[in-house]
Write a structure and sequence with these properties.
Distance between the termini of chain B: 21 Å
Helix content of chain A: 25-40%
Mean pLDDT of chain A: 91
Number of domains of chain A: 1
Oligomer: heterodimer
Strand order of the largest sheet of chain B: 2-1-3-4-5
Strand content of chain A: 25-35%
Low-confidence stretches of chain B: 134-140
Number of helices of chain A: 3
Shape of chain B: globular
Largest sheet of chain A: 7 strands, antiparallel
Number of helices of chain B: 6
Radius of gyration of chain B: 14 Å
Number of strands of chain B: 5
Number of strands of chain A: 7
CATH architecture of chain A: 3-Layer(aba) Sandwich
Low-confidence stretches of chain A: none
Order of helices and strands of chain A: HEEEHHEEEE
Helix content of chain B: 40-55%
Shape of chain A: globular
Radius of gyration of chain A: 15 Å
Chain lengths: 150, 140
C-alpha cells in the first residue's frame, strides 16, 4: 500500500535538510542506487498506522550532518555525537511523516545502527523509498509498513 | 535572560542553545529529559524561558509542562514546545497544560526568534542582523 507519495517524501526531506543543515545545501533526487549505506537510523510509528521510517546514509554523510548540527570540526566528533545527530535527523523526518499519516499515532525514540547491523525485521514491507545524493554522498529515506500489526 | 533547553538530542540542544545566545541569553542550561529538567530546577536554576521537546525518555515534554505549572515558583517560566509533534490535538493539549508557544521541527531560526520575541525575550532585529553578519549557526 502506498502511504506517501514520492513527492511528499522529497519535499519534507529537502525542507528538513534546508532547516537543519542549511549551509550544506539540500539533497537532490538520485536515480542510481549509490553504494555505501553504512549508518541506519529508524523510528517506529504506532497507532492508526504502524510502520517504520528509516534514514540511511554513508558514514561520511552522517559525520557531515553531525559536524553541522554541533558546529564542531570532523576531527573532534565522537561516535556518540554521530548517533545523536543522525538519531535527531530521523526523529524529525519520522515526525513529519507521522503528520502525513492517518492518526492518531505515536512516534518512538530513534535507534541508530552502523555497519554489519544494517537490517530490518521481515514483517516490514517497503511502502516508499527515495534515494538522494547530498554532497556526493548517498542518503536514503524509506517508509515501511508493519504487516504484523492489525 | 536565563534559558533551559530540554531535549534528548544533544545536537538539537546545541542548535537551540546557539539561537538563545544570539538573542541574548546569558545562561543556557541543558537537560536530556523532563526529570533532569526538574532536578535542575530543584537545584535552584530557575530559567526565564524553557524550550521543551515532547518526545523524550523518562519524562516527556507534556509531563514536564504539567509539572512546571504545578509549582508556584516555576509558574513564571515561559515555555516554548519545540517538537516534531504536529498533530493539532496534541498542540492544544500542550497549550492547555501551560505551554505559551509551540514550534514544529524543523524550524528556521527566524521562527524561534519570533516566538521568543513574542514572549519578550531578545531583540529580534539585532539577532537577525547578527546572523547575517556571520555569527549564525546552521539555521541562519
Amino acid at each position: 500500500m502506498t502511504v506517501l507519495s514520492t513527492e511528499e517524501v522529497v519535499q519534507l526531506t529537502q525542507e528538513i535538510w534546508s532547516a537543519l543543515l542549511a549551509p550544506q545545501g539540500t539533497p537532490q533526487l538520485e536515480l542510481d542506487d549509490l553504494p555505501g549505506y553504512e549508518v541506519l537510523a529508524t523510528t517506529d510509528i504506532t497507532g492508526e498506522w504502524n510502520g517504520t521510517v528509516c534514514v540511511a546514509c554513508s558514514r561520511a554523510a552522517a559525520r557531515r550532518v553531525t559536524s553541522v548540527m554541533f558546529e564542531i570540526p570532523d576531527e573532534d566528533l565522537g561516535e556518540t555525537d554521530v548517533r545523536d545527530a543522525v538519531g535527531e535527523l530521523v526523529n524529525v523526518v519520522g515526525g513529519n511523516i507521522k503528520g502525513l499519516l492517518p492518526g492518531p499515532t505515536v512516534l518512538s525514540l530513534p535507534k541508530v545502527v552502523e555497519g554489519g547491523e544494517l537490517s530490518l525485521p521481515p514483517h516490514l514491507e517497503l511502502a516508499q523509498e527515495v534515494r538522494f545524493s547530498w554532497m556526493a554522498e548517498p542518503v536514503l529515506v524509506s517508509v515501511w509498513t508493519d504487516t504484523s500489526a492489525g | 535572560m536565563k534559558a533551559l533547553v530540554v531535549d534528548d538530542s544533544r545536537a538539537m540542544r546545541s542548535i537551540l542553545g546557539r539561537i538563545l545566545r544570539k538573542v541574548g541569553a546569558e545562561e543556557v542550561h541543558e537537560a536530556g529529559d523532563g526529570s533532569q529538567a526538574i532536578a535542575r530546577l530543584e537545584e535552584g536554576a530557575v530559567p526565564d524561558v524553557a524550550l521543551v521537546d515532547w518526545n523524550m525518555p523518562v519524562m516527556n515534554g507534556l509531563e514536564l509542562v504539567v509539572a512546571l505549572r504545578s509549582k508556584k515558583e516555576w509558574r513564571r517560566i515561559a515555555i516554548v514546545m519545540v517538537t516534531t509533534e504536529s498533530d493539532q490535538a496534541q498542540m492544544v493539549r500542550a497549550l492547555a497544560a501551560g505551554a505559551h508557544e509551540y514550534l514544529i521541527k524543523p524550524f528556521d531560526e527566524e521562527s524561534l526568534i519570533d516566538k521568543l520575541a513574542l514572549l519578550g525575550f531578545g531583540a529580534r532585529q539585532e539577532a537577525l542582523v547578527a546572523g547575517e553578519a556571520g555569527e549564525g549557526g546552521p539555521l541562519s
